Amino acid sequence: MVGIKDVARRAGVSIGTVSNVVNRPQVVSASTRARVLSAIEELGYVRDESARQLRAGRSRIMALLVLDLGNPFFVDIARGAEETAQDEGLHVITCDSGHQAEREVSYLSMLAEQRVRGVLLSPVDTSGAALETFRRSEIPYVFVDRRVPADEASSVSVDDVTGGALAARHLVETGHTEIAFVNGPAILAQCRDREAGVRSVLDASAARLSVLETSELDVASGRDAAARLLGMSPRPTAVFCANDLLALGVLQGMVAAGVRVPDELAIVGYDDIEFAGAAAVPLTSVRQPARRLGKAAAELLIAETGESERVPERQTVVFEPELVVRASTRLTR
Amino acid sequence: MVGIKDVARRAGVSIGTVSNVVNRPQVVSASTRARVLSAIEELGYVRDESARQLRAGRSRIMALLVLDLGNPFFVDIARGAEETAQDEGLHVITCDSGHQAEREVSYLSMLAEQRVRGVLLSPVDTSGAALETFRRSEIPYVFVDRRVPADEASSVSVDDVTGGALAARHLVETGHTEIAFVNGPAILAQCRDREAGVRSVLDASAARLSVLETSELDVASGRDAAARLLGMSPRPTAVFCANDLLALGVLQGMVAAGVRVPDELAIVGYDDIEFAGAAAVPLTSVRQPARRLGKAAAELLIAETGESERVPERQTVVFEPELVVRASTRLTR
DNA sequence: CCACCGCCGTGAAACGATTCATGCGCGGCT
DNA sequence: AGCCGCGCATGAATCGTTTCACGGCGGTGG
């Protein structure tokens, strides 16, 4: 593989000069520069980032480690992060832990060994050992979609308690008194918080709440939940799902069973992914500003890895969710 | 940052010994090994992959560069690739070019500078300059979801002509004679091939074909297409969409306009992403084995980057698509 | 004519790991 | 006793860059 030495020889200059041409073109004379550039071109020289990085001590790559790339919510976060990274001349690589702590650990140690600039992290388990060992690597990280105490790390999240409350209030206000909450696994803070929000509203109302917990936050689990809902008596007239994938699964299950939505069952989802609005019965959903989440997280990370010597202060950014009402809860009378 | 030297000093051994403990534990005596390991533990030493890689000349990372992570089809490819990479002790990083040639170039040069083990590539434009410069870096690459001549590179794809034909034949067989094909941008080989498949069937039938081209392969474009379809006269009784995102958009537009699916309009999608089966009117779709695509591509790449000296031969793997019939084309009479 | 300065280019010293030839001590064999 | 071989640790060379102190050279001002 052709290196800077080969270019130097070909152009008849020293390697220092080649490096200057590549990194600080203005310090080298026009004629030399032209000679070096054409040598680079002829030889097809590609700079070796590992050597560069070894010297520099830091990489130009920022990582995003998400829970589930199959959930478009996280893809939107990735897009947001990429946008701001691009502005800073950084690259983002995306890793998918697929809700498996084991893969999370594996990726984290890979990223630490790579000495990435920083990691945007939506972890399976905050308190876990995964993070404990990663923390020792001194690589800065920012939590995304998960709030943590500011003394531990910066974080960017959306207020899930409020989000849960928004959904619950909407259902109460549209007259439902028999309400189900289809929740994901309780290990996820997001799920616990959304449930807390729901309870805070429903406990103060006349409505009755049933909570169904699923093992995954995906469409298949939603279908399972639909089956369970169909077997309940009295059957709920409204259901709130901890995310849109679950909601879409429930919707499908209901339509398949001939239950009319929203007339016989109102459905509210969470995240407001594109597919929610695009469902045949467009879903009412609690919107999270995913893109802004990604942008903000990347900005915080960049701030933390800035040139300045002083330790930057940790920040906790919390966005507010927003209820988007669509046909799946629209009164038809 | 703590390096191998610090560990060596702490354990009272040479750096060579530390390296041996990490890489070939069996060659160092148990007592020394224990001493080194505890030094590593105490200091929180994390190996610097850039130094390691500089020496080794190759990285342990394989990249996947896809057209659009927002399309679950590509997420499934990523999953497949990750599976086989994991077995080989490699890591996969995923990059999203978002259909932008510019970002594709930017990622490719980043990956070349990283001396990535190889790249799985679903390029915006095969013939483009992006690849031309990348090719000079001598990093092996395999095309995914795009067939190329075997002398250029290995590729793993699905037969799109057959896929288009499958969908068209299904519509003809279910009695439709006024058929629309909602296609994506013709720059994409996939789109051209699917259209060719459709034509091959419909030209030999009594059915009439209208082709609508959209600018993007996403849900919003599908909605736009729905509006256009509604304005046509005679209005088609069946529509085949170049992918499921378009189909979901069309479906939504139709339901919103009060058009009954499949009674007034049958819809066929392509890819068979999870959301297709989960739509309120589950979509008939042409299934592509996305996961196997990813697995196969990763395997080919690994074979090409094997230890053996001899140049491995290029391979062209073509999978067969499969029609999955669901409610969106089911005869209701 | 000398001293100085600015412009360019040079060469060598890092960076942090891996690898390999070498050395050392010790037990066993002749 | 002498020699060999084995097990284990060492230290130096190496990978491809960046960076920086230095120096040559031509021009300018005194």
UniProtKB/TrEMBL annotation, chains A, B:
<dbReference type="Pfam" id="PF00356">
    <property type="entry name" value="LacI"/>
</dbReference>
<keyword id="KW-0238">DNA-binding</keyword>
<dbReference type="InterPro" id="IPR000843">
    <property type="entry name" value="HTH_LacI"/>
</dbReference>
<dbReference type="InterPro" id="IPR046335">
    <property type="entry name" value="LacI/GalR-like_sensor"/>
</dbReference>
<feature type="domain" description="HTH lacI-type">
    <location>
        <begin position="2"/>
        <end position="56"/>
    </location>
</feature>
<dbReference type="Pfam" id="PF13377">
    <property type="entry name" value="Peripla_BP_3"/>
</dbReference>
<dbReference type="InterPro" id="IPR010982">
    <property type="entry name" value="Lambda_DNA-bd_dom_sf"/>
</dbReference>
<keyword id="KW-0805">Transcription regulation</keyword>
<dbReference type="InterPro" id="IPR028082">
    <property type="entry name" value="Peripla_BP_I"/>
</dbReference>
<dbReference type="GO" id="GO:0003700">
    <property type="term" value="F:DNA-binding transcription factor activity"/>
</dbReference>
<dbReference type="GO" id="GO:0000976">
    <property type="term" value="F:transcription cis-regulatory region binding"/>
</dbReference>
<protein>
    <submittedName>
        <fullName>LacI family DNA-binding transcriptional regulator</fullName>
    </submittedName>
</protein>
<keyword id="KW-0804">Transcription</keyword>
